Amino acid sequence: DGKLVVTVTSLGHLKVREVRSGEIISQSRIGAAGIECIDWSADGRWIAFATRHRVILWDYAKSNADPERITEPGQRGGDSLRFSNDSSLLAVANIFGDTVELFNVVEQAKVGEIATAKKSNHRDSLCFSPDDQRLYIPNLHEQCVDVYDVNTAARVDRFDAGSVSPRVVTISGDGSLLVAAGDETAFVAWDMASKERISDRAMGHRSA
């Protein structure tokens, strides 16, 4: 509902604050160091943390419970992760590989794996389509955003980013715009229906 925000340090110290007042509502410590990224599910129940060695899922509704590790034995941690809009899936991009794993959040079980483009592992964010049927993954080396079908793991589309090497990607709330950005480069935005790169109209726009 946008009323709370959660922050965590690389050493695992977590704080939940009220957005309006900044007041700290709760503090915890996640038993992991080297946290790379964090995401909070849309239903408010789950918080996921990715480290270089594992992914941790925390049931916020049971905040006194110990966080549970959901990566399978032998799997590495993630450099980015994202809950689906219905909060049922968690996508995790492997930090040293070219795959994105899909986990069923409730069952805490791996349900799929997407083989992404080679050398595309420098990803700081992932993004589900509004209906959760597609996963948008930035491809820094080929300067594009690749689109994969969540059910079949097949690549079904690609958005050319021109001279931008994207690391982050997001979709507007109404599903009409796709936006990506890289390191100290201009952002790029597309009309989702026509795939027109509308950011080309904004001459001189700055990095994002």
Describe the protein.
This protein has strands spanning 4-8, 13-18, 24-29, 35-40, 46-51, 55-59, 68-69, 78-83, 89-94, 99-104, 109-115, 127-128, 134-139, 144-149, 155-160, 168-171, 177-181, 188-191. The strands form five sheets. A four-stranded antiparallel sheet has the order 4-5-6-7, with no helix packed on it. By secondary structure, the chain is mostly beta strands. The radius of gyration is 17 Å and the shape is globular. Helix content is 0%, strand content 45%. The protein is built from no helices and 18 strands.
Q: What best-fitting shape do the alpha-carbon axes yield?
A: globular
Binned, the helix content reads: under 10%
Low-confidence runs: 203-208
Within the largest sheet, what's the order of strands?
4-5-6-7
What is the H-and-E element order?
Answer: EEEEEEEEEEEEEEEEEE
State the total count of DSSP E strands: 18
Mean pLDDT: 83
Largest sheet: 4 strands, antiparallel
Number of helical stretches of at least 4 residues: 0
Tell me the β content: over 45%
Distance linking N and C termini: 25 Å
What's the alpha carbon Rg, rounded to whole Å?
17 Å
- How would you classify the helix and strand content by structural class? mainly beta
